[in-house]
Amino acid sequence: MNIQTIPYVQAFKPSDYVGQTIIVIDTFRATSTIVAALSSGVKCVIPVKEIEDAKKLWKPGRILAGERFGAQIEEFSLGNSPVHFIQTSSCRGKELILTTTNGTRALSRVAQAKQVWIGSLLNARSIAQRLHVENTSNVLFYCAGTRGTMSFEDCVTVGAILEEWRQLDPQITQSHTSFDDLSLLCMSSFQFLHSQDQLHLLRESRAGKRNHSLGNEEDLDLSLKMNEFNVVPTYTNGVITASIS
Hints:
This is Probable 2-phosphosulfolactate phosphatase. Keywords: Hydrolase, Magnesium. The protein has a five-stranded parallel sheet with strand order 7-2-8-1-9, with helices on both faces. The protein has one domain (2-244): ComB-like (putative 2-phosphosulfolactate phosphatase). The protein is globular and about 55 Å long. By secondary structure, it is α/β, with parallel strands linked by helices. It contains nine helices and eleven strands.
C-alpha cells in the first residue's frame, strides 16, 4: 500500500496518477462546494479551468458558478459557496458548471485518470469508508493549495481522511504501508488539532483569511464541519456525479 500527497496544483506530474486512486482536495472552497452541491440535489458538476470555457458550456438547465481569488465572477449566477446549495432548492436537478482559482485547475490535470474522488472535511468519513471497502492500495491526495504553495486546510483535510481510514483499518499505519512524509505530517496535524478541538485554527490560513475578508464566514463555518455529508463525488469523463457511501 502506498499513500502520497501532492501539496499544490503545480507540483503534480501526469506520471503521478498511473495506477492511483486520486482524491482531489480544495477545502476553502471548491471541493466543499462540490460536496455540498451534490448532496443537495445538483444533478452533476462540470468543472472547467477558464471563465470563457464555462460560458461556452452554458445552456438552459445549467448554472454558471465560480470565483477568482475568492470573489464571485461578476457575470455568473453563483460564486463558489457551499452554503448556497444547502440553503436553496433552486439548483436541484440542474447541472452546475464550476470554475475556480485552484480547485478546478487541479481537476483539469487529472481528467484522464482512472479513478478520481472529491474530498473535503464535509465527507472525510465517506471517502475513508470507500477506500476501506474497495481495499484501495495506491492513494494519491492531490491538494489544490494556495497560489503555488501548500494550504493548511488542505493538509489537515488529508489528515482527517487518513485518520477516519485508520479508525476503520488500523493496519494502514503498520510497517507494510508506505506513507510519504507529507501524508504523515497531514495525519499528525489533524490528530493534534482534532484532539484539542482546534479545527477553527484553519481560519488562520491564507485562504481562510482571504475568505474572511470577503465576508464568506458562513462558507468557512460549513467547510470546517466534519462528516456532514455521506457522498463520494466521482469525476469521470469531465463530469462529477454523486454516489452515496
